[in-house]
Design goal:
By secondary structure, the protein is of the alpha+beta class. It has 14 helices and 29 strands. It has three domains: 42 residues; 373 residues, Spore Coat Polysaccharide Biosynthesis Protein SpsA, Chain A (Alpha-Beta Complex), CATH 3.90.550.10; 134 residues, Trefoil (Acidic Fibroblast Growth Factor, subunit A), CATH 2.80.10.50.
């Protein structure tokens, strides 16, 4: 028994010793693994195995994402998505240091098949044969199924992506410049350009067509780089597969943001990373025409405070067809702070070069914009308080003009821009646009901001509940010595009509008999459309005013007037001379609520479809004949409720 007890104790000691040795071995393995991984990370700091075969040495690497960029101005505090963590530290060979990629066989990357340079005859750039977040093929499908695919693509991207994928990534656009542009000579020492392209959940075909369009049309000696900035995209094809593609493009760098910045913040980030002397901000769905870059650089080189835009041609969102814009045009905005391009008739000049002379523009769109990099920074870049997107181009336009710069459209430069049918993903909160416009109104418009608030009631009520912090912008205005908005209206944009908005003579024009408001179904369409009657919106979209000249002015710009071209009342461009034509003059009788046309002495009457016409004698005759007519008419004056009108002023904001 005593020997058995001693043997048992010995076995227990041996077991403990073996367990101790096993623990020590595991600890040593863990330490060795940590040291090995640390050494490997220092050697090749890339989380993506697909890049290892092209990485030769650490000196050939360029970090395209830096966590310090996440604090860039203009972003919303949205946490980075977990699905993007693999791309937060992507590293690709620097275009300036790596050798050109050699031809390679098609590779599989997720649900994509990638054709690298040289694998297809006549194609110098990579082409993706199969595209889709879930492996969908863009091959044409017959019948209703094909239509369903197209409808789905429109809902996802705001345009017909199926039609876009049928088009080459490097299609050429027809010549649209004035023949006189062909003889223009530009300086050989033009400043270098960095083309900054921000994107968020952009379609593959349009994004890559934009990049190839820049590379194929911009002279190599003037194009310093193309910066692709991913503003926290969520679509799979814009992650590592895009990095794989861009790694084979000389002159292209990819930068990813770890938070949502919005268009202003994203472009400011690109400007901070750019190396070119001139920044060319470009939307991610553009196509450049031959010779587009040199005229822009020439104008900026002549005056570094000059901000310029090409003529923006149109790519149809349904067919992807190219449509040239008729010159001349300029950018403007209305009292709802909405931007649009308008025809700008120029006086006839004897100089044959007048047709290709740049046009001064009160505002420029955000599609393509060229600006000196140092001037952009000195004037304050994009307002960091602007959210996501919307009206940032108007804010920058007012600031450039007011703070010592100028803007113009250059006719010998043309870039086509894809017009979206709708933007399904860019504005998740509809109040974002109003908040951006509120910043513009409170920062730059002085006492004139009350005109804006009377035409955007949602913005008025948001402004009542929360005040934007524009302290930094006010300090910037003071330090730059910027002029006031009255100077802008009188010097830069004197064509913009300044409403009077007199009490009880402005607002929605409400009709008592139909319980509806005067409406213009044409919206921003061509002037000359007939007026209509519709439910009162209460948004400010139906705002009109009767001014001291007797004109009933309609719309956010106040450029259209009630016109009596016949029995039916329509809108026509308001006369520019004073006093105005008598056919545009009206008189409001407050006691009866009648609007009397001065020339005909007839009264404005509203008619709903199916309404009953009454006799010319002015008295109702029981049951009358129903009418299919609808709209506003000039009729003999009676006391019928359909001739009784009231100007309903939705808001009466105070001045500054």
């Amino acid at each position: 028994m005593r020997l058995w007890g001693r043997g048992r104790a010995l076995r227990q000691r041996m077991l403990c010793l073996w367990l101790l040795l096993l623990v020590l071995a595991l600890v040593m393995l863990g330490v060795t693994d940590l040291l090995y991984r640390d050494q490997n990370q220092r050697r090749v700091p890339s989380p993506s195995r697909s890049f290892h075969h092209r990485v030769h040495s650490p000196v050939d690497l360029e970090v395209i994402v830096d966590s310090r960029d996440s604090a860039a101005a203009g972003g919303l505090d949205l946490p980075p998505l977990t699905s993007l963590q693999e791309d937060q530290l992507l590293i690709v060979p620097s275009f300036a240091q790596r050798s050109r990629a050699t031809p390679a066989a098609p590779q599989k990357k997720g649900t994509y098949r990638v054709l690298l340079p040289g694998a297809n005859k006549g194609t110098a750039a990579p082409t993706f044969l199969t595209h889709g977040d879930k492996g969908k093929s863009p091959r044409v499908k017959p019948g209703s199924l094909q239509k369903d695919v197209e409808v789905s693509s429109v809902q996802k991207y705001g345009f017909n992506e199926v039609a876009s994928e049928r088009i080459s990534l490097r299609r050429g656009l027809p010549e649209a410049r004035n023949p006189a542009c062909m003889g223009e000579q530009y300086s050989e020492s033009l400043p270098s350009a960095s083309v900054v392209i921000c994107f968020h959940n952009e379609a593959w075909s349009t994004l890559l067509r934009t990049v190839h369009s820049v590379l194929d049309t911009a002279p190599k000696q003037h194009l310093r780089e193309v910066l692709l900035l991913d503003d926290l995209s969520q679509h799979g094809h814009l992650k590592s597969v895009l990095s794989e593609y861009v790694a084979h493009l000389d002159g292209v760098r990819l930068i990813r943001s770890t938070k949502r910045l919005g268009i202003g913040g994203c472009r400011s980030l690109g400007a901070a990373r750019a190396a070119g002397e001139v920044l060319v901000f470009m939307d991610s769905h553009c196509e450049c025409l031959k010779g587009w870059l040199e005229p822009l650089l020439e104008r900026v080189a002549q005056d570094r405070t000059r901000v310029v835009s090409p003529v923006m041609d149109v790519i149809d969102w349904q067919t992807l067809r190219y449509n040239a814009t008729q010159w001349p045009v300029r950018g403007v905005f209305d009292w709802r702070l909405d931007f649009h391009w308008e025809p700008y008739p120029r006086p006839k000049e004897k100089d044959s070069n007048s047709a290709i002379q740049p046009v001064r523009s009160p505002a420029l769109g955000g599609g393509v914009l060229a600006i000196d990099r140092h001037f952009f920074q000195s004037v304050g870049a994009y307002d960091p308080g602007m959210l996501l997107l919307g009206a940032e181009q108007i804010e920058l336009s007012i600031r450039v003009w007011s703070c010592g710069g100028s803007m113009e459209v250059v006719p010998c430069s043309r870039v086509a821009h894809l017009n979206h049918h709708h933007l399904p993903y860019l504005l998740p909160d509809q109040e974002v646009l109003q908040r951006n416009k509120i910043r513009i109104a409170d920062t730059w418009m002085d006492a004139y901001r009350k005109i804006y608030y009377s035409r955007d009631t949602l913005a008025h009520f948001i402004r009542q509940s929360e005040s934007p912090n524009v302290t930094e912008q006010e300090s910037l205005k003071k330090s730059l010595g910027c002029r006031n908005f009255h100077w802008f209206l009188t010097t830069v944009y004197p064509e913009l009509y300044i409403p009077q908005d007199r009490p009880a003579l402005s607002g929605e024009l409400y009709n008592v008999g139909t319980s509806s408001c005067a409406d213009y179904p044409g919206g921003k369409g061509q002037p000359g459309g007939a007026m209509n009657i519709a439910p009162c919106s209460g948004t400010g979209n139906q705002h009109c005013e009767l001014n001291s000249m007797g004109e009933v002015r309609w719309g956010p710009a106040g450029a259209l007037c009630f016109d009596s071209g016949g029995e039916k009342v329509a809108l026509s461009p308001c006369p520019t001379h004073q006093p105005s034509d008598s056919r545009f003059q009206w008189k409001y009788i407050k006691l009866s609520g009648q609007l009397v046309h001065q020339q005909s002495q007839l009264c404005l009457e509203a008619m709903k479809e199916g309404g009953l016409l009454h006799s010319d004698g002015g008295q109702e005759r029981g049951v009358n004949t129903p009418t299919t007519e609808k709209g506003l008419f000039l009729r003999p004056c009676t006391h019928h409720p359909r001739q009784q009108w009231h100007f309903e002023q939705l808001v009466a904001p105070k001045g500054a």
